[in-house]
Batch of 2 targets.
Target 1
Amino acid sequence: KLQFLYLIASCGRERSWHRRHPPAVAPARRFAADMTISQLFILSPRGDKIISKEYRHDMVRGTDEIFFRKFKFWDGPSAGDTPPFFTVDGVHYAFVKKNNLLLVTTTRANLSPSAMSEFLIRLTKLLKDLLGVLNEEALRKNFVLVYEILDEVIDFGYYQGTSTEKLVPYIANEPVPVEQDETAKKAALGSMSKSPLSRITGKGTKLKGAADAQKTILGSEKGSRKNEIYVDVLERLNVVFNSSGNVVNAEIDGAIIMKSFLAGTPELRLGLNEDLSVGTGDRYGGVVLESANFHECVNYSDFNNDRTLFFRPPDGEFVVMNYRVTHMDYHMPFTIIPFIEQVSPYRTELTLKVKSHFPAAVHASTVLVKFAVPKLTSSVSVELRGGAANQTYEYKAADKTVVWLIKKFNGDTEHMCKAKISFQQQAPEKVRREIGPISMNFEIPMYIVSGLSIRFLRIEERSKSYNPSRWVRNITQANSYICRIN
């Protein structure tokens, strides 16, 4: 019955779309005949088809099963993980992975892979804005709303638009709220910080604020706005160390991300560090960014003078500024120092020392250290030192890897572990070359490596009674944090 009602509503929406947006010229002249996608589906981590939408009806059955089989057991010409674009029997597949969900499009046309990827990335942001949180439960509880969104963003395989602000007035269904899982909620709560914005408002930072940011903007349009705004300063690190613990290569990819629930569309003024410089500057006396780019709504005419930005925030989540730092004058949050000793032809020991260099008041959560062991390995035993109560390890014999987990890593401390690697037979000396590299994955709330900070966030041309809540988070994450042993 629900599917029948949805089919009727879907037909009505398609007719209403063409009434709202009459084509200026004939569709055949506007688009090339081969610039269409045929299918879009969303799969769970188990391969279950949660959402499936046919646009052209020119595909064989079972394309989702073909895709998932290739994704799990890639046997293409290049070894490693499944590439984001591949072709099977004349069908082109493109996918992105978000929160363990697989968003996939298929086509028989010679479409631009970059265009397909960009569309899927924008679709994930759109679904997150309208559902509040993007996970399997949210998709299942809001499947009618999701199909309505897919009807609006794609028409017979042609892209129509993924702007949250333009799409919201045409959405009739209301989302079913979905609670965050406890792990994600604790991570969000832990990442809130006392910030300059909290001092501006004269209020302390409320822990519930981070979780509240995971809500739909549709509720805000229906009159339940709380009149607040969230700002994230996020930095992802790409670092390579040598065996002595020295930095060989380092790069910081940063972004200032904003999500607005403000009443109306007020103009905002955002101030950054006064000693900030882009391209050139004194690297030892201020914050120097190699490059920076801004959202289309941002007016940066005064940025060179006083480091301020003016903009009217659109609905939903958007990136105010992207920036990049490539010089190695900053202290990385962790140093990895390995030491290998061949005890006998049948056993080798790897000693790892990981030291944190951020303030003691800050801690990193869920620090994961992973390294490979030689193929001849028969068993691995690990000795943990220095607060081993919050540490665990696991040897994965099938992958020949060891995973060391530190649940909470305090600042200005160090942890050590010794891995005793036993071999099935007598191993040559060069077997030590098969150990490593060592990779780390972590997240550090309330800490930014580059030193970028937000001085103020003001609302222009508003009365004193208009004083919305403002929240800020500083987060540092490891994107590729590797130590090369050999």
Target 2
Amino acid sequence: MFSRCKGRTGKMFLMLAVASCLTFVASLVYLSTVNGYRFSREVPCTPRKHVAFMKIHKTGSSTVLNLLYRYGDAKNLTFALPPDDHLGYPNLFRATFVKDFAKNPGKEYNIICNHMRFNLPEVKKVTGDDSFIFTILRNPDSVAESAFPYFHSVAPVFGAVKTLTEFVRKLDKVFNPKTLNSFYAHNLLWFDLGGDAEAGAEGPHVDQTLKKLDSTFHLVLLAEYFDQSLVLLREALCWDMEDMVSFQLNARDPSTRSSLPPDLLSTLQRWNALDWHLYRHFNTSFWQRVEQYGVDRMERDVKHIHHLRQKIQDICLQSSTPEAKSKSSSYIKSPDYGNAKIIGYLLKDNLTRETKEMCIKMVLPEGTYLNRLQRKQG
């Protein structure tokens, strides 16, 4: 009798053990099906509510900003906003650059995401030691090509010539680091992250800076792999995939883009060597993160983002392709800046009030959305 009970007890224990193992595995990774697409998420996790985004010029950061604006707006989170349109740039960031921070230094802020020149200790004064800190980089050649027309009217070193080709040919003659806004023309990524753009491309300061940034940023996105970046960001923040859906904003009319001959491109790359140190370093770590995430899993989740974006495009836009110009009252775009001609989107007519508001927020120029948030927060 005892031996029979012992046998049954052993079988029951084995079944319970197997069930527990299966439950444990399921708790690590599960698959969710939305509109026929399956995407994975590690659980359990809690959505991050303290986020610091280092918005770097000419890297696609306006699109990320809009994503953060929409999320925080919908969740009624508190933004650390500037009193005007930036947080003291180009000075190194200080917490007192945040609107009303000095009046109420104990106030809790959830998200800081406007243009600043990065300064970690001061950022932590605003969003706390537990904030998730991330940024986005772009190929430095593309950054320089985009910066030239955009800042042509505010940076005399650019304004002294008519084309980027001429600027690169005459670097020794036209560039002066003491000239107003010269930082837009030399190692702009490095400068925005708080570094000295004129420090030189070789020496111990390069590795020291890269190690410091490695330990500071929890994630560095890449503009050239934007959707893969969104997938990694979604997992890191524990937000929903729908929160990652975005349209490209503040993009230039392709007709205003230029290219350099190979010899001048090499000159430009040597000129922005510090930016290239940054980009190569974080390009390597980015793909390491993708490998850790899982290549097949990444491919599946990128398809899901594409599907969700297409769904919103079909609801909101007359065309998924941005428009260079339109006289329609449904046309929304950021203002042109310098010699850069910005393209926008044409919304569908006859949208319901709720749907129209959702669609407008997807394409709202960052200055307009900032004004909305400033009024909302008082």
